[in-house]
Amino acid sequence: MTQSLHFLQARPFRLPLNNSNCHNSSHHTLLLNPKFNSFSAQLSLTTTTTTTNKLNSNGKKDSSKTTVLQPKTPSKINPLRYSSLIQDCINSNSFDLGKSIHAQMVSNGYTPDTYLQTKILMLYARSGVFDDLCYARKLFEKMPERNLTAWNTMILGYARVDDYVEVLQLYFRMQSLGILPDKFTFPSVIKTCIAMEDFSGFQQVHSLVVKARLNGNSIVGGVLVDAYVRFGWMDDAVTALDEIDRKSVVSWNAVIAGYVRILRWEEAWDVFHRMQRLSVCPDHFTFASAVRVCGALRSLERGKQVHAMLITCGFEGDTFVSNSLIDMYAKCGDDKSCLQVFNQMEQRDQVTWNSMISAEAQFGHFNEALLLFSRMQDSGFKSDRFNLGSILTASSGLTDVEMGQELHGHLVRNFLDSDVILGSALVDMYSKCRLVEEACKVFERLLERNEVSYNALIAGYVLEGNVDEALNLYHDMQLLDDIQPDQFTFTTLLTLCANLRNDYGGKQIHAHLIRRTSMQNIIIDTELVHMYAECGRLNYAREIFDRMGERNAYSWNSMIEGYEQNNQIEEAVQLFQQMQLNGIQPDCFSLASMLSSSISLSAAHKGREIHAFIVRNTMEEEGVLKIMLVDMYAKCGVMDYACRLYDRTINKDVILHNVMVSAFVSSGRMDEAKHLFDQMKERNTASWNAFLVGYAKGGLKVESFSLFREMQEADVEFDALTMVTIINLCASLPALEHGEEIHGLVIKKGYINSSVVLETALVDMYAKCGAIEKARIVFDMMNDKNVVSWNAMITGYSKHGCSKEALILYEQMQKEGIYPNEVTFLSVLAACSHTGLIEEGLRIFISMLEDNEVEAKSEHYSCMVDLLGRAGLLEDAKEVIEKMPIEPEVSTWGALLGACRVHNDVDMGRFAANRLFELDPQNPGHYVLMSNIYATAGRWKEVEDIRQMMKIKGVRKDPGISWIEINNELHIFHAGSKMHPQTEEIYSTLRHLTLRIKGLGYIPDTTFILQNVEDITKEEEEESLLQHSERLAISLGLISLPEKSTIRVFKNLRICGDCHTATKLISKITGRCIIVRDTNRFHHFENGECSCGDYW
Predict the structure, then answer these.
(1) Whose CA is closest to 783, among 817, 812, 760, 749?
(2) Cis-peptide into 734, omega within 30 deg
(3) Average pLDDT estimate for 483-508
(4) Comparing C-alpha atoms, which of 496, 506, 422, 423 is closest to residue 458?
(5) How many CA atoms lie within 13 A of 898 on its CB side?
């Protein structure tokens, strides 16, 4: 047979000369056990002093002198009794007496046969005395004949003292002599292979076991199971278990423990469940392992099943099992059951106290954990590294830095701060107290680190939102041999990616998970579903969800919430129904998602169905559901139901008050909102925000700013929502000066780099207020950017005609791992349209169509129509409309009509306008555009027809207005407006400017008068153009703003061609930068040129 241990085979067998492994060693005087008086009476005894060498607990020899009784030669002993006497001594562990009998045999000159020699061999080999084993080897080598039992005795003897080399030497020698191993040989040899980590050698031994048909033997089979478990080959371990004829509970336990060791919890549970089906009676180790599995799976239902079973089997009072129950209930979040088990225990050990203190800390009962720690000490148990770690957790939970620092000092004084468990707890404490620098210092001082240490610091970086440091630490873990990311590592990082909507980082972690293991893990899979759903990658989330072998309520809730948040409401409702069909009872979270879906659908009837379910299941008093119900009825327009629910609630908290205030504000019932607000005994920032958001959404801009000032005067603590709301208000006006003031307040309050949403709002505000350079400064200073941040900057560049910068950002965001979404593509295509980048636009549009992640919508096709139409490719633009796979919307036909206005194509314009008159008959913009096309072509009859059509349909043209902000005050102008206090100066300035720009070649373009006036003079036509609202606003800016300051004017309609030409020349003669934002885009006029390049 080919052996795996070649280094042993290479050595020819010989009697070893080394005393340390018993060879050629001298035998010392034998000891007599005086307890056996019945036999001792037959012997003449003398007193002598002997020296014995025994193995201590460390495997070393201890020498000691002992005074013992030593037999003289008896007068008569029947030789036939020697065998049974020695066997009795072996059975009763009376080795001293047995050696005395052997000494008497030697003194009598009695020569034992092979059978008796083997018994004597057993006597010395099993005594546990090192010198006795050496003497046994000497006897073994002198035996003329050795039977199988003799070989097994020596192999077992060496196995007991962990001399694995000698075990294998004897095993190979035995085989070379043709002696076949039996059921007593194989267990020792297999255990030796385990100890020497020789899997190849073990497999060869296993093949011999199979040939000997001993794999069904309970002892041999049990050792085979244990070996495969130790080597981590669990499938083979299960196969070995199945081959055992009479399986012992020890073998079952070995398989369960093996699965537990490699965190394959479901397989461990399946083995335990199979034991139940086969009526195998578990022992306390089985129950403890099964309880641990339930805790790891967070399966409270299964845990309670096991608890009931172990009570039936009489293990309720077992301390070891009870400790496991405390840990399981703690992990499953059942604090009552956890405490009940603890209180019912008659005997508690250190593990009991440590587990319960840890449980209280896990439950967030931090004061109770401290109280238990004190009780433990009063009960005579001492503090150790485990309970001190829990107390550190309690101090971090209470954010009691002082207590944590006291404990830290205690650990330093006792040289325990570098201990891996306590050091990890310190890292965790400082991380949760948001002192990550201190956490990092403790981490660096640790002499040894484990997964918990790394996870604690990663969690600290996650709390700070520091993605880079968290991922760097994660990558450091991957490079280590003895530490690898575990379940907590992955779930923490996936949660971080979900919170930041960073699917790129999430995909990296997912890829590592795939490479690391092919096994499913319900907790990690659920976090993957949650991460992809939060990032809007619903196809990935659903694929993982459908592949999950088992799903818990969190798995279903994550998928349902993902659909709901991404506005796929029908899918959310269908999944909610499917969840119930699969036997999962809806909880607060799934019901809240369904109520939110009802809001999105404005479907009060759906909300009523959910409400009925909540009432039937007595969940109406659940705080979050009560709030969601009020909110749902209010937002679905059923205010009576909302008010009724609110009035019926006895214990109203500030959150419910805030929801009701917001409901009144949103429905325009401001008096009732104010009345409720004034009656509130407790108000928080959210209470003020409810008003502020309501005013802002209702377009009550003056009231919004007034309320904000009132908040400042009342010293109300602002939060990010307050700032975002007021910044968005500044963007919508737009009001740059107000926005700059709020930005200063944001910096003063320390909100910079604390909220991606807030910083993104600042980027958007500056871009919409015409300060694109400031928008870019804020964008570049952002530590974290999500896809919305990138979109805000790209959209800003697009609106300002900075197509090159928009395209550069589009490429850069992808390099940084942010995948473009539908808004990104819309902004980039608009940027190409504004500057006529046809090839780039087509390339990007095609790439979007070929990418399954983003579905092209009507808005994207509208951009393509606009891109082609503005470039004069009107037939191509029309072809896009005709061949697009979805029904063209108003914006698509509007883009074609706008292009026809640019190129004065009457026929194509009429074709597009007719479709718009059908789809959107009340929109005055379509009529005005077509009227302008006719007017430019001099077709005044058709112009009049359009006006009559508008009159008949009751459509009113939106009046053109422009506005400018000066010293935080908005000045609004209509065409020909003369209500402003500085009207004379405004008009005088314009007339003076007109004369000057005529000197530069300006000729008024009267085609933009757009009305049939044959009886007015040329001067009157020029005066009519001069009175356009944008020119009036520009004039006021020139008069009122400091020299060389930028003039920013905003208009609700498209700037006319004559004003565009005039403003270019005004910028040249005044040396001023003039920015005009019309309904489509920004125009930057400077030194006689416009940023649009006259392509608008």
Answers:
(1) 760
(2) yes
(3) 83
(4) 496
(5) 23
**Alpha-helical segments (H) within 552-603:** 553-565, 569-581, 588-601
Percent of the chain with pLDDT over 70: 91
Contact (Cβ atoms closer than 8 angstroms) between residue 1059 and residue 993: no
Q: Which amino acid is at 207?
A: S
In whole angstroms, what is the distance from residue 863 CA to residue 865 CA? 5
Lowest mean pLDDT among 96-110, 827-841, 1027-1041: 96-110
Q: Which two tokens stand for residue 556?
A: 């279903």
Amino acid identity, position 694: G
Long-range contacts of 413-420 (CB under 8 A, 24+ apart): 416/385, 416/388, 417/442, 417/445, 418/445, 418/446, 418/447, 418/448, 419/385, 420/446, 420/447, 420/448, 420/449, 420/450, 420/452, 420/453
Packing angle between helix 81-91 and helix 95-107, nearest 10 degrees? Answer: 160
450 burial type by CB count under 10 A (0-12 exposed, 13-18 middle, 19+ buried)? middle
Task: Of 673-677, 748-752, 891-895, 928-932, give the lowest mean pLDDT range.
Answer: 748-752
On the question of pLDDT at 832 being above 90, the answer is: yes
**Token pair 């910044």 in the structure block, residue:** 727
Closest CA to 119 of 80, 61, 174, 158: 80
Question: Residue 98: its pLDDT value, please?
Answer: 86
pLDDT (tens digit per residue) in 774-823: 999 999 999 889 999 999 999 999 999 999 999 999 999 999 988 899 99
Q: Assess whether pLDDT exceeds 60 at residue 355.
A: yes
Nearest residue to 381 (alpha-carbon basis) of 333, 334, 347:
347
pLDDT of 1015 reads 54
Residue 775 near residue 756, CB atoms below 8 Å: no
Q: Provide the pairing of β-strand 1082-1086 with 1074-1077.
A: antiparallel
Is the dihedral angle over the CA atoms 278, 284, 289, 292 positive or is it negative?
Answer: positive
Please return the burial class of 545, using the count of CB atoms within 10 Å of its CB with bins 0-12, 13-18 and 19+: buried
Rounded to an integer, what distance in angstroms lies between the CA atom of residue 509 and that of residue 497? 10
